[in-house]
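Progress report, Aim 2. The chain analyzed during this reporting quarter is listed below.
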Amino acid sequence: MAAAAALAVSLGACGAGKKKSDNSSPAPGGSGSSSATGSKAITIGTTDQVVALDPAGSYDNGSLLLEDNIYQFLMNVPAGGKAPAPDAADKCGFSSPTEYTCTLKQGLKFSNGDPLTADDVVFSFNRINKINDPNGPASLIGNMTKVEAKDASTVVFTLKNPNDQTWPFVLGTSAGPIVDSKVFPADKLLSDDKVVGSGPFMLGSYNKNSLVQLKANPNYTGPNKAKASDITLKYYTESNNLKLDVQSGAIDIAWRSLAPTDVESLSKDSNVKVLTGSGGELRYMVFNFKTMPGNNDAQKLAIRQAIAYSVDRNDLATNVYKGTYQPAYSMIPQGIADATEPFKDTYGDAPNKDKAKQTLTAAGVTTPVNLNIDYTTDHYGPTSADEWNEIKRQLESTGLFKVKINGTAWTTYNAERVKDTYSIYQLGWFPDFVDGDNYLGPFLAENNFVHAHYCDPGAQNRPCDKDGVLPLLTQEETKAGAERTDAFKQIQEKLATGTLPLLPLLSGKQVAVTGKGISGVQDTLDPTYQFRMWLFSKS
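Predicted structure tokens for the chain:
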């Protein structure tokens, strides 16, 4: 799992390239050509930045926003779905425990007219490993030992670990776009403006992280045919300018990321619609088992439990984030298959000062407990300071804690936390794919990104068994159906009732704001974070 890469790039990526001023708007969304379905041209605004449009060199939300619409994948999660379905593939499945076979649909073509064959699929996955770009998704296909074309339409992946239940999801991630082997070099990245895919759209004009025009791909024959023939993306550095432009009608859709106060303000404006949907983003608290307060393991656990009893998620979601986030009671957010709510079952959905006090007293902890809590000022949005100041207020209001919070820029913050400088600190997570495994494995492994020291001694990049999760993780990774669901349920419960290395706080809702006459956006607001622009139309 590329936990570090996914997190570091998904929110903090800065694309290179010349930028235009946020005030230099394209022509209003209402003008422009029409597609065969009669939709007018659409303009979308976003603060997400593109790292690269060559899939071998990108692993971030901003790049994937365009890649999802330019390329096809063997498998992908359809709008509103929770499981992958065939995209460029006609069918996929395990042909043996370590072989996963996909058969392509007939007549696939890239936007330049080149046929898409099994050789292109093999080329696409092999070049990701060969280039192994530091910003690329090679870590996502770490379970692949080789990929072969059995014939022009059959691809076979050989996997290290048998019956990998996450592999169908991986095929729809940043590692999955199929590229044209006649256009893309095998050993280096292709420049953004020259990329060719077989998805619903193709690149028109391209000014990186300023203005990008997409055109409906005339060679696309799949089920996701674009309703609008022209879509322009305008890139912003300030969310306030994004708000002003959607409010004035200069753009048709505002997508990632508006401040919660802006969303609240726009919800009262009759000229726009604020749309929300389930999201897969998670915000959580990390406890460093080495450096957190407490004289022994029992006291440290009691302090973690007392914090869990004292935090008010509903207050954070409502008053700090204005409803753009919802309380999270598991490391698997609601909206993801197999999510349960064990932290609500164990600690309640409202603060319980008496339970917190009893827990500390039973462990012999002297109160108030001095807590140092760290957060990053620039990596998880401008509202982080408000969030953690409110958490400080909540904890101190119990009389059981004395809290000092410290805000640090991400570059320094990320370096310091892995040196064990911090004892309790903020992290966030955007999933690599919408499966419960992606919210568990990356957090419990030895030397994992969260750096909680939950698992240290000789575990060979596997979870330690402090909470009895090792066999359960193996079960959810290799079993299907009821056995997998039961494993997920037990792991989530053990994290809440056991040693409590992490405290889930909030999960992000999908939020988009649309102007008049826009349809289809609501349908794409799901935990995959795929912005399926082929669904959009304007009357």
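Residues 306 and 356 are 4 Å apart (CA to CA). Residues 282-508 form a domain with the Dipeptide-binding Protein; domain 3 fold (CATH 3.10.105.10). These observations will guide the mutagenesis work planned for the next reporting period.
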